[in-house]
Design a protein that fits this description.
Elements lengths: L11 H23 L9 E3 H8 L3 H9 L6 E3 L2 E5 H10 L7
């Protein structure tokens, strides 16, 4: 780049800068959608959120609730799970590979 070159949006450096800004904006928007505030340091997840994360059916969580295998909280018609309870159930049911 020489001293008298006009810097426009089509300039390679400027273009790559704006592309990087667009990627950062997309990432921040995604973070804002998925980030939930905590209540007393604990995150609460719906059965849909848990089933998507673990790739398990929502019906399975209903069966686990009915069998008393997984703790939950019910407010009105909404079922919520503490994230730490889900992690605890997963850890308790973890099985090492045998060889």
């Amino acid at each position: 780049m020489n001293d008298k070159e006009l810097i426009t949006r089509s300039n390679e450096h400027v273009s790559s800068f704006f592309k990087a800004l667009d990627r950062m904006l997309d990432g921040l928007e995604n973070l804002a959608k998925t980030c939930k505030p905590t209540l007393g340091g604990e995150r609460y997840l719906t059965d849909k959120e848990v089933s998507v994360r673990l790739k398990l059916s929502r019906r399975m969580f209903q069966d686990y609730r009915d069998q008393g295998r997984i703790p939950y909280c019910q407010l009105g018609g909404k079922i919520l799970y503490q994230e730490s309870d889900i992690e605890k159930v997963l850890a308790e049911n973890y099985r090492d590979v045998f060889r």
